[in-house]
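Hello, quick one for you while I still have it in my head. A protein chain has come my way and I'm curious about its shape. I'm sending you its amino acid sequence along with the backbone structure tokens. I'd be grateful if you could look everything over and explain what you see. Here's the protein in full, and shout if anything looks odd to you:
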Amino acid sequence: MKIIWTLRYDREVVSYLYSMRNSPIASELREAIQSLQFKDDPTEGCRLAVGWDDRYEFEQSGHWIGFELVVMDKGIRVLYVTTIS
């Protein structure tokens, strides 16, 4: 049986993506985040976020996208999208 994860976004992520809405990079970031929903293991190909044991991040289009799994609810909480400096 395939798991479909539920996405939840922190307000800062929603604001950031909205502020970039006219940028072609914004759609790439949204697609990358949405693709996590359909992975059996969303952490595959990700690294542990520095300083955290339960948060993961991956690089997309010059940005780090950070998230944590909420296994009991089959959810993914998107915590941040930040430019790599």
Remarks:
- The mean pLDDT is 93.
- The beta strands are 6-9, 47-48, 55-60, 63-70, 75-83.
- The radius of gyration is 12 Å.
- The helical segments are 11-19, 24-35.
